[in-house]
Write a structure and sequence with these properties.
- There is one protein chain.
- By secondary structure, this protein is α/β, with parallel strands linked by helices.
- It has a single domain (2-256), classed as Spore Coat Polysaccharide Biosynthesis Protein SpsA, Chain A.
- It has eleven helices and eleven strands.
- Strands 1, 4, 5, 6, 7, 8, 9, 10 and 11 form a nine-stranded mixed beta sheet that branches. The chain has a two-stranded antiparallel sheet with strand order 2-3.
- Helix 7 runs antiparallel to helix 8.
- The longest helix has 32 residues, at 242-273.
- The protein starts with a strand and ends in a 7-residue tail after the last helix.
Length: 299
């Protein structure tokens, strides 16, 4: 499955993150020594389920890397247009492409095994759209103080994931509806109002269960949708505000220190298991130097 990374957003002066990027793409803001989007590319590159990665909104000049084939498309001006361009590129790369991952560039805590879990879980059925959600309790246990926006349903409080699976035909159908929904993506109530007063009233009065919401939205748009409840908060932890940026900077810097300490411990264990290894290496190095040293000529 190909992955489309949406990375074209440039914060304006009124945006809370403007002072951090100063006219550059939000995706390139530094987090623990890397551009934010590079963390996402690392996760997709290590995924066993991702084939190609298409970045929309950046270029090869940004010096990004990925273990999977990496393709760049220019910013199309609007989020929906960027998604459509990415889907068209995926189909160009493989005419048999059916499903695609749509990934935001601002979820740097994402890991490869989480990407694989999503693809495997989604492909248990054949729907048009798979929309991920995370329970408030799961999010706040992993990222306390993240202050995410939650939708209050009858049976739970949830926030949306920033990596989802869609069928390629979604890039050609219901585009006006998608444009409206994406434009209101930061407000669940505004999105509900786009889909009808009945849905808005049910959401406002907390009469909707997640199953009801999926059924009614699917019927309203004319698609077959499915909700996926994430056990991993990382897929829903995006960077919209300065405190969220600082939270993830601290979190990923801590994970880097943990990884470095683990690697150091592993190296020490290997040395204890084979204490003669360093001596053998030193002896081999000395032998090589002796061999290369020219013999002195006798007078």
């Amino acid at each position: 499955m190909d992955a489309i990374v949406i990375a074209g957003g440039i914060p304006r002066p009124e945006d809370p993150l403007y002072t951090y990027v100063k006219g550059d793409a939000k995706a390139l803001v530094d987090i623990a020594g890397k551009p934010m989007v590079q963390w996402v590319l690392d996760a997709l590159g290590d995924s066993k389920r991702v084939k190609n990665v298409i970045v929309v909104g950046l270029s090869p000049k940004n010096a990004l890397t990925c273990k999977k084939p990496l393709h760049f498309l220019t910013n199309q001006g609007r989020m929906l247009a960027n998604i459509v361009a990415g889907v068209n590129k995926s189909v160009e790369l493989d005419k048999k492409s059916k499903y695609i991952l749509i990934v935001s560039s601002d979820i740097p805590a994402l890991k490869a095994h989480m990407v694989d879990w999503l693809v495997d879980t989604a492909m248990e059925t054949k729907d048009d759209l798979y929309y991920g959600i995370c329970l408030r309790a799961v999010m706040e246990a992993r990222f306390p103080g993240s202050n995410r926006t939650y939708t209050k349903l009858k049976d739970m409080e949830v926030c949306g994931a920033d990596i989802n699976v869609v069928h390629v035909r979604m890039a050609t159908e219901h585009l006006d509806t998608w444009e409206d929904l994406l434009g209101a993506r930061k407000s669940p109530l505004k999105q509900a109002s786009k889909l009808g007063l009945g849905l808005l009233f049910s959401l406002f009065t907390r009469q909707l269960t997640i199953e009801d919401a999926v059924r009614r939205i699917s019927e309203r748009i004319g698609i077959k949708g499915r909700s996926i409840i994430w056990p991993y908060a990382e897929a829903c932890m995006d960077v919209d505000k300065p405190h969220q940026l600082e939270l993830l900077r601290a979190d990923l810097a801590k994970s880097q220190r943990r990884a470095a300490a683990k690697a150091k411990t592993s190296a020490k264990k290997m040395t204890r298991k084979n204490p003669s290894a360093p001596k053998k290496k030193a002896a081999a190095s000395k032998a090589a130097r002796t061999k290369l040293k020219p013999k002195s000529k006798r007078k």
